Amino acid sequence: SGVGVGGGSLVYANTLPVPKREFFNSGNWKGLTDWESELRPFYQTALKMLGAAPNPRLEEGDLALKTLAAEIGREQQFEAADVAVYFGEAGQAAPDPYFNGKGPERAGCTFCGGCMTGCRHNAKNTLDKNYLFLAQRLGAQILAESEVFDVKPLGAADGSDGYTVQYRSSTGWLKKKRVVTARGVIFAGGVLGTIPLLLKLRQSSLPRLSGRVGYDIRTNNESLIPITTFDKNKDLSKGVAIGSILHTDESSHLEPVRYSSGSGFWRWLLLPMAHGGSFAARMGKVFKDWVSHPISNLKLLFVDDWARRTSTLLFMQHLDSTLRFHRHRLGFIQSSVDKGAAPSAFIPRAEELAQNYARILNGKATVFGLEPLLGIPSTAHILGGAPMGKDAGEGVIDKNNKVFGYENMLVCDGAMISANPGVNPSLSITAISERAMSKIPEKG
């Protein structure tokens, strides 16, 4: 998760797809309203605010995905991704191109691949370049490097008289406590910020919170598979972080992810593909792969520039299964299976596609080490924990993002997502938040 002024947008892959219809008609929010039609105008607003544009340049990793699409008969389902990037003249500064001069100066994308390590060229449309920038111009104050640890109602127990919000420095040695008061509160700390805080507050300052806090955590049913090429003439680091998307079927999607040249730390966290029902079985397969292919494994470990030679496939599915976060008596957060099958580190279709992609690139597929070591999957998109429902027995928030049990309190981040999008969720988070804001009456 991104922690800073701009949140997850600082490190996300700036990819903005609209989910398939299945997303709007499943999960906890099913039937609360006609989500597909209701959200349509807010998706358009979100695309405008985030500066979405089609990626104009397909690079090596994208072209390999296009070849794979043709091989599986899905070439018509391959497309350039819509991304939150300014594609002006590369590296050249330009006046605000989005908000009639009210936004900051921007510069054209250089296609360096560094979107997820922090854009160094002022081309990525992070939230500090749009929503937060414009809010500051209207008088909002941003208290950076701060961590909220308590929210209490003022007067009435339901918060109708307002709230006190206590916070402290998130970076300094001296954790001096500070307090502000507010008529209303919006939780927007991401799943790993909002949900642990709500779980804590339900046991103390906000006891009226629904017992559903922490339920219906979703992982987008993902698989992340790095493929490293042995061809030194290929440069897989050039382009935007995610430049294309392949819809492999009605519920599944595949994207090639890149990092900029020099971003090679991941190599030390990878192991050969190895799946099995026990630790011993998985480690046996890892050992067998090293014994059978020692040269290729050493090449992967000591490749000249891991990011230049590696494309990480991100496989996502709409299929629904959920986890639960709960607070241990010692204060840390634990997870357990809620509904459906537990998220699996092994998705056969993802592995099959990855092996074919590796063949096209003349490379080898690997996995993140926790998968064979612990048998648990990795995900780029942790969602849910404050699901929507028709009442507090079904959800934490209503269809307008208002928290059950309290007045003037909302959740507007990934925690509110109440079904698996099956694609990158940032655009949906923005659109649903835009809709929630439209329900708040204007001052005066």
Report on this structure.
The protein is of the alpha+beta class and 444 residues long. It is built from eleven helices and 18 strands. The protein has helices spanning 21-24, 35-49, 60-71, 131-137, 191-202, 279-292, 294-301, 306-309, 348-361, 370-374, 426-438, and strands spanning 52-54, 78-80, 82-84, 93-94, 106-107, 146-153, 163-169, 177-182, 185-187, 223-229, 244-247, 252-257, 270-272, 310-317, 322-327, 333-339, 363-368, 409-411. The strands form six sheets. It has a seven-stranded antiparallel β-sheet with strand order 2-11-12-14-10-17-13. It has a three-stranded antiparallel β-sheet with strand order 6-7-8, with no helix packed on it. A hairpin with a 4-residue loop joins β11 and β12. The longest helix is centred in the first third of the chain and has 15 residues, at 35-49. It is globular and about 70 Å long. The mean pLDDT is 93.
Features:
single chain, 444 residues, alpha+beta, seven-stranded antiparallel beta sheet
Structural class: alpha+beta
H and E string:
HHEHEEEEHEEEEHEEEEHHHEEEHEHEH
Secondary structure: helix percent: 10-25%
Look at the structure and give the mean pLDDT: 93
Task: Give a short account of the largest sheet.
Answer: 7 strands, antiparallel
Count of helices? Answer: 11
* Distance linking N and C termini: 37 Å
Radius of gyration: 22 Å
Our estimate of the beta-strand percent is 15-25%
Number of DSSP-assigned strands:
18
Strand order of the largest sheet: 2-11-12-14-10-17-13
